[in-house]
Predict the structure.
Amino acid sequence: TYAPKLILLDISDINCIRDVAREILNCYGCVDILINNASMKVKGAVQSISLELDKKIMDANYFGPITLTKAILPNMISRRTGQIVLINSIQGKIGIPFRAAYAASKHAAVGFFDCLRAEMEEFDISVSTVNPTFICSYHHQPAPGNWEASTWK
């Protein structure tokens, strides 16, 4: 049995993810189950959301989980065992108004993990996606009209 260890990770900071994964593997030797459950979203009209914020949403919801998964995956493949779970969103299957960046990032994640599932079958690594309906999450609402600061984490 291992004592719990708290390792902080900003999933939208792609540059630090590999280092965190290495720290986890150095500490425990392996990861049996990887649950990708981080997310960031914004509500606003497409023309009101900056490309910079679109990229932040994509980093947190798509590039973050796949970067962490790719960092852990070689260890799972070498052991020929493991389970990878993506907690995604129903918006990864359907798009709704005022959630374009979020829905796009969730669609991309579903596509990636669906492909990964097929590729990992030969290594006995299970890949699952969970797409719950709307959930309540932390929300920061700024002054009206400031879409940039209206994010959920």
User: Anything to note?
Assistant: The chain has three helices and six strands. The chain has a mean pLDDT of 88.
